[in-house]
Amino acid sequence: VSIILTDFDYLQTTISLMKNYADTVQHVRNNLKRIREGLEMSHSDTVLLRERRYTLSRCGLRALLAKNTERG
Fold first, then answer.
1. What CA–CA distance (Å, rounded) separates 46 from 24?
2. Residue 10: what are its φ and ψ, rounded to 5°?
3. How far is CA 8 from the centre of its chain?
4. Average pLDDT over residues 48-55
5. In terms of Cα–Cα distance, which of 70, 48, 68 is closest to 56?
6. How far apart are CA 64 and CA 13, in angstroms?
7. How far apart (Å, rounded) are the C-alpha atoms in residues 35 and 33?
8. Within 13 Å of residue 27, how many CA atoms lie on the same side as its CB?
9. Measured in Å, how far apart are the chain's first and last C-alpha atoms?
Protein backbone atom coordinates (compact mmCIF):
# COMPACT_ATOMS: atom_id res chain seq x y z
CA VAL A 1 0.00 0.00 0.00
CA SER A 2 2.88 2.39 0.83
CA ILE A 3 4.45 1.82 -2.60
CA ILE A 4 1.15 2.57 -4.36
CA LEU A 5 0.77 5.85 -2.42
CA THR A 6 4.36 6.83 -3.24
CA ASP A 7 3.74 6.09 -6.92
CA PHE A 8 0.54 8.14 -6.78
CA ASP A 9 2.39 11.08 -5.19
CA TYR A 10 5.06 10.76 -7.88
CA LEU A 11 2.40 10.82 -10.61
CA GLN A 12 0.68 13.84 -9.06
CA THR A 13 3.99 15.70 -8.85
CA THR A 14 4.82 14.77 -12.45
CA ILE A 15 1.42 15.91 -13.70
CA SER A 16 1.74 19.15 -11.75
CA LEU A 17 5.19 19.82 -13.22
CA MET A 18 3.95 19.06 -16.74
CA LYS A 19 1.02 21.44 -16.30
CA ASN A 20 3.36 24.10 -14.95
CA TYR A 21 5.65 23.60 -17.95
CA ALA A 22 2.70 23.84 -20.37
CA ASP A 23 1.52 27.06 -18.69
CA THR A 24 5.03 28.52 -18.96
CA VAL A 25 5.28 27.59 -22.64
CA GLN A 26 1.89 29.21 -23.30
CA HIS A 27 2.99 32.34 -21.45
CA VAL A 28 6.18 32.55 -23.54
CA ARG A 29 4.19 32.03 -26.76
CA ASN A 30 1.78 34.81 -25.80
CA ASN A 31 4.69 37.16 -25.06
CA LEU A 32 6.36 36.31 -28.38
CA LYS A 33 3.07 36.91 -30.19
CA ARG A 34 2.72 40.34 -28.55
CA ILE A 35 6.32 41.19 -29.43
CA ARG A 36 5.76 40.14 -33.06
CA GLU A 37 2.55 42.20 -33.26
CA GLY A 38 4.39 45.20 -31.79
CA LEU A 39 7.21 44.83 -34.32
CA GLU A 40 4.73 44.53 -37.19
CA MET A 41 2.91 47.65 -36.01
CA SER A 42 6.20 49.51 -35.62
CA HIS A 43 7.23 48.49 -39.14
CA SER A 44 3.87 49.62 -40.54
CA ASP A 45 4.20 52.95 -38.72
CA THR A 46 7.72 53.39 -40.10
CA VAL A 47 6.55 52.72 -43.66
CA LEU A 48 3.61 55.09 -43.23
CA LEU A 49 5.85 57.85 -41.83
CA ARG A 50 8.30 57.37 -44.68
CA GLU A 51 5.49 57.70 -47.23
CA ARG A 52 4.11 60.82 -45.53
CA ARG A 53 7.55 62.40 -45.28
CA TYR A 54 8.06 61.75 -49.00
CA THR A 55 4.64 63.27 -49.80
CA LEU A 56 5.37 66.31 -47.63
CA SER A 57 8.77 66.83 -49.22
CA ARG A 58 7.16 66.73 -52.67
CA CYS A 59 4.53 69.25 -51.53
CA GLY A 60 7.31 71.45 -50.14
CA LEU A 61 9.20 71.18 -53.41
CA ARG A 62 6.10 72.16 -55.36
CA ALA A 63 5.55 75.15 -53.08
CA LEU A 64 9.16 76.29 -53.62
CA LEU A 65 8.80 75.91 -57.37
CA ALA A 66 5.53 77.87 -57.29
CA LYS A 67 7.17 80.68 -55.29
CA ASN A 68 10.12 80.86 -57.67
CA THR A 69 7.79 80.86 -60.68
CA GLU A 70 5.76 83.73 -59.20
CA ARG A 71 8.91 85.79 -58.69
CA GLY A 72 10.19 85.10 -62.23
1. 33
2. -60, -45
3. 42
4. 90
5. 48
6. 76
7. 5
8. 6
9. 106
